Each structure stands twice: as structure tokens, then as C-alpha cells.
Amino acid sequence: MKVLLVLVPISIVLLGVAIWAFAWAVRKGQFDDLDTPALDILADDPLPKAAAATSGDAAGSSLIDTPPPAGDAVASDVPSAESDASADPPRPIRNAD
User: Fold this and answer.
1) Burial of 46 (0-12, 13-18, 19+ CB in 10 A)
2) Which residue has the higher pLDDT, 65 or 4?
3) What are φ and ψ of residue 20, in 5° steps?
């Protein structure tokens, strides 16, 4: 029972610290916007055009602007699923009677 004389004041002090920390966080605006930080991770980062332009390195130019090397397959060379489907239309299902 003597341990309660130590534990009760310690728990009251810890409760006071927790209430103070919560009040401080509310006053500093920690709970103002809870949705935007979670959605920021889904946004695409802009391309660093300025960094590539200021590097002075010919090989450091943007990879998006460079054409593919000769002999590589590009999207127009690869047959798509739509072109295969239009060449051979599906056959109608016949009834068994």
C-alpha cells in the first residue's frame, strides 16, 4: 500500500504532462490539416528541368526529349490488343437445340 503513495503522484504528473503536450500541439496547429500530408505522397514530383539545363553536361539533358536509339522497338512497332481483336472478330455462340 505504501507504493500507492509514490505511484498516484507520478501518474498525476504524467497525466498533467500529457494534457499540456496535447494543448501545446493544438495551439501550434498540429491538427489543422490531417488530409493533405497523407495525399502529398501520391502527387508526382515535377521534373527537375533547371538542374539538367544548368549542369552544362550534354549527357545530362532530359531523357524525355531524346529520341530512342535506332533499332529499338517503340510503342507504334508493338502490336496492340485492339489490332488483334479487329482482325479476327469473335464467332457467335450457337444454341444446342
Assistant:
1) exposed
2) 4
3) -65, -45
List b or e across 48-82, with b for residues whose CB sees 16 or more CB atoms inside 10 angstroms: eeeeeeeeeeeeeeeeeeeeeeeeeeeeeeeeeee
User: 60: helix, coil or strand?
Assistant: helix
Q: How far is 33 from 27, CA to CA, in rounded Å?
A: 13
Rounded to 5 degrees, φ, ψ at 50 are -65, -35
Q: For 4-19, what is the mean pLDDT?
A: 97
Q: State the chain's mean pLDDT as an integer.
A: 75
How far is CA 68 from each of CA 26, 35, 44, 75, rounded to the nearest angstrom?
A: 54, 41, 24, 11
Q: For residue 57, how far is the Cα from the chain centroid?
A: 30
Please check the confidence at residue 8 and state whether its pLDDT lies above 70: yes
